[in-house]
Design brief:
alpha+beta, Metal Transport, Frataxin, Chain A
Length: 84
Amino acid sequence: MSSKHQKTLALLFADPIRADVNWADIIALLRHLGAEVSEGSGSRVRIALNGIRAVFHRPHPNKETDKGALRSMRRFLVEAGVKP
């Protein structure tokens, strides 16, 4: 795993939850981990990783992901067997 992906994973699991994690970096990490990422309607993004599926909303107009979405992403990654 590249240092950029390691940094993104560390930011996702940081306490307290961060409010400055770039959505594009999260998607790049997920693809590196082997996730299937597909666009849904509107701002929805479908993600499947290790048999676990979830739907997230792409942040807009900002590029940073909010704390609630990061909390959900953290839960998704733990359920999919990914830990920092």
